[in-house]
Structure formats: C-alpha cells, structure tokens
User: Fold this.
Amino acid sequence: MTDNARKFRALLQSGEFIVAPGVYDGYSVRLVEAAGFKTAATSGAALSNALLGVPDAGVMGLTENVNHCRHIARSVSIPVTADADTGYGNPMNVHYTVQMFEEAGIAGVNIEDQESPKRCGHMPG
Assistant:
C-alpha cells in the first residue's frame, strides 16, 4: 500500500466528513491542495471533456485514464482517487485496472456498476 493510500484509508477511518473536490489536471489538483483540502478525486467526465472533448461515454481508454491520473497524483502530496469507469471489462480486467491505478500513485478508485458500452449517469438517454 502506498503512503497516499494509507493517508486516504486514515481519512476514511477518521469518521470526519470528507470533501474531495473533482480535478482534471495538475493545476486543478494543486489548487485543491492549496485550498486546504485533504484529498481530491478525478472525474471521468471531466477527464473525457478536458482531454478528448467528448462526453463521459467510455471513449477514454484505460491507458489514457491511468496516465493522466498519474500526472495528477504526482502533482500533489494529498491522496487522489480516480474514476475507473466500469473497470474496463470482466473481473480479471478490473483486477488489472486497480493495479494500474495503484502503480500510478492513485489512493483509491471508484468503479461504476454497469456493462459496456457505459452510459453516462448525468447525460440524457
């Protein structure tokens, strides 16, 4: 377990209310850290929009997501969690996905419970 994963686990176990502002690049995460927040979270929608100019509809792949999250996590000392979309496949793929994010310095991931192609929860249709 990484230091940031330990920090994040301690935050979760503290019982205090945790606010994790959404970030999409190194600058936005540094602003969150400078404002005094103890953690930050990436958003699949924000990354898809910022990187590719497309909605959060499963267009951004695992490698793009992990690489961008790596840059975000390296920009700060606070733990960063990531939106790992649907885990990018079956249980074996999900296991690999979690390992990739962990190796990138991400403190935790959230995985959506839906099949591919995914449907963005805040888009009509």
Q: What stands out?
A: Residues 87 and 94 are 5 Å apart (CA to CA). The chain has a mean pLDDT of 91. The helical segments are 3-13, 26-34, 44-52, 62-74, 91-103. The first strand starts at residue 22 and ends at 23.
